[in-house]
Sequence to fold (300 residues):
Amino acid sequence: MASFERDHEDSNNQPLLRDHAHEQNKHQLSRKVWIESKKLWSIVGPAIFSRVSTYTMNIITQAFAGHLGDVELAAISIANTVIVGFNFGLLLGMASALETLCGQAFGAKRLHMLGIYMQRSWIVLFLFCFLLLPVYIFASPILKWLGQPDDVAEMSGVVAVWLIPLHFSFAFLFPVQRFLQSQLKNQVIAWVSLVGLLINVLTSWLFVYVLDWGVKGAAVALDISWWFLFFGLFGYTIFGGCPLTWSGFSIQAFSGLWEYTKLSVASGVMLCLENWYYRILILLTGHLENATLAVDALSV
Fold:
């Protein structure tokens, strides 16, 4: 009789035990999701902010150019979106090869190789910047050949020449960004990007409104802002921010350049194809009636 009562009591308690275990599992799952989400957002949050900040610099430049006139806005839009954008996609893709190499080296505890890979990327991208330089120098005839209005093409050519310093900043900034990202130092990139954005607003106002440099001033403001991003991140790297992965400049960076170039070019081609579709859209807009206003509207 006592055995029967115990069995009956256990059978009544089993649903309660199952419910309790279910609640515990739910609580543990929620806690794990919260912990993993915090870890994820601590990485991707600063990365998102830094990308938005650098993209906002281009928007600010176009906004200031919009106050100068229709032709000026169209010229900044084409120079920044088509001329710079064409090279931006290629160089960004080439620098993305570092994501694989630095990630592997960091995981294998070959920490000193991260700095060498970054220097190797600087060399390759810097040389490719010279190969791409004619696109800036001959921007006006190229745009006229592609059917853009003469006044917009001429002004875009002037802006493109003044954006050459920006072009060379890509060769150094993109590798150091990936170098730091592979070490989960995204917060440093985010803070430097914020300061760079503020500098871009200040210099754009100073050069366009105060000194009245026109579209040239807007281009120079963009040059200064992007070079500040590089010097800020590089300064953090060499002044103690990465003691294990940066051991100074090394002659090893000049070894294996051909192999790295092949890997970089493959990465560059894959990424630049994704970036070029919008550039092509801007060029096609230049063939519409009243092309200046059409390009202005699309850029806005």
Q: What stands out?
A: The CA atoms of residues 137 and 297 lie 26 Å apart. The first helix runs from residue 2 to 66. Residues 45-299 form one domain.
